[in-house]
Write a structure and sequence with these properties.
elongated; 5 helices; mainly alpha; 0% strand
Amino acid sequence: MAKFKKASKKKAGSGGASAQAQAERLSSTLSESAQQIWLAGVGAFGRAQAEGTKLFEGLVKEGLSLEQTARKFAGGRADAVRDAVENRVGQARERAADTWDKLEKVFEDRVQRALTKLGVPGRDDLNALIDRVDALNAELRKVNGSSAPRKASAKKAAPRKTPRKSPARKQA
């Protein structure tokens, strides 16, 4: 019973915290989670890279060993054995490339999921926003009376010493 009373007192005390402090804690927690997800992905990529390199080096050593053994037994058929070994090495390289492609895809998917969970806008969202801004600019041009946007002249103008003030600043 005593433990329950202590827990209820803690909950009642945390209810008085301001929304600002809660928002800051949430923001901090999300930021830390994003950092941990990123670091985990980079660590996984590094481990896969190191293990992939070790695997490749091991396959090369094994191939050299097979080639030497085959030369001893084959005698005059060394070219056929070399071709077989090169074929095996080529297959190993293809498998390694496939493994890297799969690993890259997994890494990209995990990072994309993490960014989506954090609410980071994607390429499609940004393109849609750009389209909306362009449409709004076109509407503003119609309202202001200019039918076409100004196009840059073919010749470069000399740089000005004083910066131009935008029309938005004048109106404000």
